[in-house]
Amino acid sequence: MSLRLRVDPIVCDAHGVCAELFPERVSLDDWGYPIVDSDPIGRDLLDDARRAVAACPVLALRLEEP
Q1: Buried b (16+ CB within 10 A) or exposed e, 30-58
Q2: Rounded distance, CA 58 to CA 54, Å?
Q3: Closest by alpha carbon to 5, among 45, 36, 29?
Q4: Topology of domain 4-64, per CATH?
Q5: Considering the chain, what percentage of its residues have pLDDT values greater than 70?
Q6: pLDDT tens-digit profile of 24-53?
Q7: pTM across the whole model
């Protein structure tokens, strides 16, 4: 099973929590909106990805199967 990180750009309010908690896969654009690396999340980063998803204040971030 491989999971990918996805962001819903309509829901996202650019709080930046995801980039703070998961900088390995999330960076921010000039306006503070996340740019998410679409590569599958490995087991070594899965806990960090789940933490970032859980901390999103507007639930715009999620883990999905490709």
Answers
A1: eeebbebeeeebeeebeeebeebbeebee
A2: 10
A3: 36
A4: Alpha-Beta Plaits (3.30.70)
A5: 98
A6: 999 999 999 999 999 999 999 999 999 999
A7: 0.90
Structure tokens at 19: 């980039």
> CA 12 to CA 3: how far, in whole Å?
20
pLDDT at 66 over 90: no
Give the closest residue to 41 by CA, choosing from 19, 27, 26. Answer: 26
**Residue 2: which pLDDT band, with cuts at 50, 70 and 90?**
confident
The DSSP symbol for 32 reads S
Q: Are 11 and 58 in contact (CB under 8 A)?
A: yes
Q: How do the domains of the chain map onto residue ranges?
A: 4-64
